[in-house]
Amino acid sequence: MYVKRREKGKPIRKKKNRKKQNNMYKDDHARCNSVPSPASCQAYLTFTCIDHHLNAVVDSYILWPPARIPAFMTNLRQFYIATYKDIFFINPPAWFHLYVRMEAVYHLPISAWAVYGLLTDAPLVPLHLLIYAVQTGVTTATCIAEALSWQGLSGSEKNALMGLYLPYLAVSIFMGIDMFMRLSSIIHASMRDREAKKLN
User: What pTM was estimated for this model as a whole?
Assistant: First the structure.
């Protein structure tokens, strides 16, 4: 608050100091970074890089024309099946084909873009990673539920599969919550900025 000097014949007027308040809003908005912290950024970079290569080399195998499948992809797939006995890659259900196509349409390209986005602090990182996390979480949770119902695998074999699927689920849940909170902060900061402008 500040007091305006009395002029002849005019009463003293008090006005609110909006400048300080506006600066506070700007500072809040500046703190609402669209990119993750260095630690989580490194974790997301590692996760998206691994996920991108696995989707491109392993999951997308069934989308390739048989005559054009590279030999190394076939060898890797055979090794994976022999090691983990993952029925999704032996006799996949119809919905698994749908998930693979969803990955090819959005998941595969966005995981490549996410590496660029995280390295360059792209403002759309929280939005895309939220969608990415939701898709990863839903598809992984479905696969886990299905795998746990398989009758042909022993307990140790299922545990080995869970060692692959559960980390995916955990990272996707953490990423989804993190990106949701960041988007919420950005939206709330923008709303405060609008309110501050209305008060000017």
Answer: 0.76
